[in-house]
Amino acid sequence: MTPLKFIRNLRLRQKLLLSYVIVIFLPTIVLGLYAYHNSKSSLESQFLQSADNEAKKVALEISYRLQRQDVPMKSIVFHPALIDLMSNPNQDLYTQFKTLNDKIEPIFFNLMYMVGDMNEIMLYSENRLSELGNFITPSTAVKDKDWYLETKGSDTTKWWFEDGELFATRVIYNIEFQTVSGELYVRFDYNKIFGDFIGRVNEGYGIIITDRQNRPVLTEHVGQMDDDQLQSLSRKGTSKATIGGESYLVVNKDIPQTDWILHYLAPDNQYKTGIGNILSATGIIVLICMVFLSIIIFLFSETLLKGIEKLNTKMKMVENGDLTVVVSTNSKDEIGQLTDQFGSMLKQINQLISEVYQTKITQKSAELKALQAQINPHFLYNSLSLINSKALRIDAQEISDLVNHLSSFYRTTLNKGKQIISIQDEWTNVQAYIHIQIAMHNTRFEVEFDADDKVFQFEMIHLILQPIVENAIMHGLDLKREGRGKLILRASLDGEDIVFAVEDNGVGMEPYIIERILKHESTGYGMKNVQDRLQLLFGSEYGIIIHSQPGIGTSVIVRIPQYRHIREDES
């Protein structure tokens, strides 16, 4: 069953309910969902923006703390005495020790003991093969360290966190000779750098700082993480992560002046609670709207259906034969007007019943006269039969044959007043007509019949072939001046169709005449009537096609489907 047919078969109350659901309830629910999703999106956007802002603040704060340590490191690597000491290892030891003791070590001790953030300062020399004092050692001692090559190839401070130690490195560059003299290594007190900062992270939020290998530099308010979880952390944008059984939105930010990444962890439940509140509020509003609409719909539906159900009850009583029902209403809407119109129609029916009774009497009288009129064909057949009998008595065989053909022609032509005839009878009819015409024309033309017996099991419209044959004789053969005329009738099956052909070797027709006789009522042809009757019953794809050449002849093709008429007494 198709959806359209299913809806059409529903009762009116069900159709109204379905239409209300589609037109009112469904849009209300859709609008509610739309409002919920918009609010949810807005809340998520605000939450993400807030987390992003906090992550930026944290990243800048860490960058500031590290950059503050960059100033004393620059004062070391750009100190002329230190550059000279690191670049000229061939000076005499006295001069080197004096420079180290008088100019370099005081700076180091001041930074370590007076400032307090630095726990260790070490200089690694590219030009030295042995240690000098407590602060200078050959670079060969650290060539296998991860930080060595990267520091040597950079002109900025590099920050590192390895084996629980926080340190920074920076290259010492000899500008005069355009060479690297060594590397500065400074180890910092981790707690003094990050200690007071860690406690400022909001409750429930977390911080993870990872280096370029995704190794943790700092973790705060975060559960235990394995290496796989650390490696899965994204280094850009935002992402989702589950740490210690808690779900977080992770905002990833580069920390300026370092190769580190800040992962700011904002717990999902911070905004999921707000989303739950929005969902509850939206659900309550939608529910209130639906209850209110349901009450209004119920009142309108009952008002509408009450009148229809009352009218339906009255109509069923009339259907069961009770024509005395009084149908009226005080309602002025369309249902009330329909009820009043039905009541008015019922009164008119009662009036017509009495009139029909009188009409039936008149009809019976007309049928009697029609029965008397049917005597005339029987009188004709009886008269022709008497003529045939007398012709046989005087051995006038030609007259007898002509009378038989005439009798057969009229019998099939009248066809008891029916429009549908068997092809067998139609074929007999046209054969009788042609034999009569041959006699009238003193056999001036010959005829050929070619019919497939299989076509005789079907039926067709009455009097189709006779007008075509009549045209072939009158407008074709009769006008022929040279040679003997010939008329051919064919009947055959063509797939699911039946094809009749009436061919003559008469004078033929011009194309404009063919078009005129098929599209207009032409005196003397009657072909349009035949065409209209065929297409009215069988459709526009069936009917007559005419092929004709002036001076050669004409062929009229009639195509009809394989047709059997279902009569009332058979159905």
Automatic annotation (TrEMBL):
Membrane topology reported for the UniProt record: Multi-pass membrane protein
InterPro entries linked to this entry: Bact_2-comp_sensor_kinase, HAMP_dom, HATPase_C_sf, HATPase_dom, His_kinase_dom, Sig_transdc_His_kin-like_C, Sig_transdc_His_kin_internal
One Pfam entry name: HAMP
Localization terms from the record: Cell membrane
E.C. number: 2.7.13.3
Residues covered by the HAMP domain: 302-354
Record flagged with keyword Cell membrane: yes
Designated name of the protein: histidine kinase
